[in-house]
Amino acid sequence: MTGIFIFSGTTEGRRLSKQLAEAGADVHVRVATEYGAEVMGYDPNIDVQVGSCGGAEGIADQIRKNGYGIVVDATHPYALNITEHIRQACEATGAEYIRLKRSESDTGSSNIVKVSSVQEAVDYLKDKEGNILASTGSKDIALYTQIPDYKERVTARVLSTMESVQKCAEYGFSGKNLICAQGPFSEETNYATLKQIDARYLVTKDSGTAGGYEDKVRAAMRAGATVILIERPKEEGSTYDQVVEQLNLKLGLNMEVSRSAGKRTVNVIGIGMGGSGLTLSAKNRIDGSDLVIGARRMVESVAAGKVILEEYKADEIVKYLRENPQYTDVSVLMSGDIGFYSGAKKLLLALDADEFDVNTEPGISSAVYLCAKMGTSWQDVYMTSAHGREANLVGLSRVHAKVFTLLSDESTVHAMAKQFIDYQMDVSITVGQDFGYDSEKIFTGTPEEVLKEPFGKLCVALIQNDSPVTSNPVSIPDEDFIRGDAPMTKSEVRALSVAKLKLSDDSVVYDIGAGTGSVSIEMALVALNGNVFAIEKEDPAADLIETNKIKFKTPNVQVVRGLAPEAMADLPVPTHAFIGGSSGNLKDIVRCLLDKNPDIRIVINSVTIETLEETTQAIREFGLVEEDFSCINVSKARKLGKYHLMTAQNPVYIAVVRGR
Fold first, then answer.
1. DSSP states of 372-384 as a string?
2. Who has the most CB within 10 Å: 404, 415, 483, 622?
3. Of the listed ranges 105-114, 263-272, 545-554, 556-565, the one predicted with least confidence
4. Across the strands, what pairs with 44?
5. Exposure letters 458-470 (e unless 16+ CB within 10 A, then b)
């Protein structure tokens, strides 16, 4: 390799050539015209050649002849033919092709009409009134002659070369209707020109910041002119800073890279219901992206005609972006809103702020959409998800008037309805199906009616309970439980024990020696989004727990039949444990709990002196942190004639310990 071959003709090409030469690289530049060579300026360290190489074959001959291993295409973004020829020549010779992609502009103006070609711009202007400033160059100047009275209405602004002047004159552009000058032009110059010719329209290409496009648009906005934008052809490539980084690595150079080098834009977008439900801001982000990522149904609904990647896993998305630096403005699509059980949470954590500029766009969530369709408010709705995860919909609907949940397909809807039937819940269920699609449907009915109804693949539901339970669940009266002959922890002791466990909403709790399940039920009502495993060796007692589960509507209680600690072996890791009966296995039970979670919090109740002794021995043997040790003595009043006599219950010792 004897040097680097650059096809220039742009501000970026000239800048890169000079930066490479200053870094000591052997730089060879090809420009199309003498004017291009003139604006390159003289530099003894840069070899500048003028003229076409003769298509792809001619470029390939130059690459072979000079042994170029790297070719940089820094031509104008609208020079499609030469870009294709350079690419073909690199493929034929094995030279590495690097496309220096000019950054697209973002003016924020709404007074822009976008078209795909100069001809389409002319067609748009044929029946419009007012003067026109045509700043698209002399190459397509003949097309403007199709506009009625073009010699009076259209002013052409072209390069100040003889070739450009002659071509414009050939088609009748001269005198006050021809401006010859070298751009880019400042906002003030553009504004003065538009006002001088009283232009109603400005026809331009997106030449980027370097080409003065943004100054043109700002000037047009000030002058009250509509911009007719010839949209830039879609292309792949790398930004200036990314190209500099690549050449530093490949050529062993140390060119300075700006602080934002390689920092690309990633838009994390909630698409709402997709299609027409997309917000205007989100649509603009997607339209301006060179890559759109998301699950198939999402990209198909909003990203037609874009380069797409069907992917939803955060780690895979970030990996792909790092392996494909040519994509500089990327939109990642999320269903509904990015803040509600969305993959956006994990993706935002995975996107390094030193690598990416991240923008977020909210979408209309399915909860908001369903409530709006139903004509009901959503500020008083409890929101959760049973889509690919467990959710205690029965327990939540017991205490909330409205519960919204994400679901999956028909099977999850029917499973939910069946559970409400099993737990004898008097609720109304509204199911929404396939929002944003032709198969969209909203159905309201009882659990029995919902169970009979067919549904699609993407479902949500709003569950309404006209009589939710709002009282504190702790210290349920003993007589409310179905008891049988199984032992039961009494109300006052149960309330204190559950309080000392300090459960969270999502705790995972073992109730060892559960008896009738009174403690299990109370813990399940506190840890609504958690799970309680009621471990009981006696089948009649286990049957009672199943019955009490239904009565108190706590499906988050799972009955485990067997003797602890053996019955605990395959259970999930607990955060808390209540030991109300150990059958003489207290030490083995504590050992098993600590093996599962060294930080576990345990409450141990002892009624007998022997169990109390076992507890103190376990504390010493396992080095448990002793938070509290108390004895509770409860006396309950009973009526005798007109008198109340107090009857004492057995004292109960409550030990509160944790692993560390």
1. HHHT--STT-EEE
2. 404
3. 105-114
4. none
5. bbbbbbbbeebee
- Which helix (H) or strand (E) covers residue 154, if one does? strand 154-158
Taking the C-alpha atoms of residue 360 and residue 363, their distance in angstroms, rounded to an integer, is 10
Contact at 8 Å (CB) between 48 and 37? yes
Q: How many CA atoms lie within 13 A of 599 on its CB side?
A: 2
Q: In sequence order, which ranges of 375-490 are alpha helices (DSSP H)?
A: 393-399, 410-422, 447-452
Query: Do 482 and 520 fall within a single domain?
Result: yes
**Domain end marker among 230, 252, 285:** 230
Tokens 């076409």 sit at which residue? Answer: 52
pLDDT in tens, 475-500: 899 889 988 877 788 899 999 999 99
Name residues whose C-beta falls within 8 Å of residue 609's C-beta, 6 or more positions apart in sequence: none
Query: Is the predicted pLDDT of residue 535 greater than 90, yes or no?
Result: yes
- Per DSSP, what are the bridge partners of residue 464? 402, 428
CA distance 299 to 294: 6
Separation of alpha carbons 194 and 189, rounded Å: 9
Does residue 156 form part of some domain?
Answer: yes
> For the domain that residue 382 is a member of, what is the CATH number?
3.30.950.10
DSSP string, 284-296: HHHHT-SEEEE-H
User: Model pTM greater than 0.70?
Assistant: no
Angstrom CA distances, 639 to 492, 647, 650, stand at: 20, 10, 20
**Residue positions counted in the chain:** 660
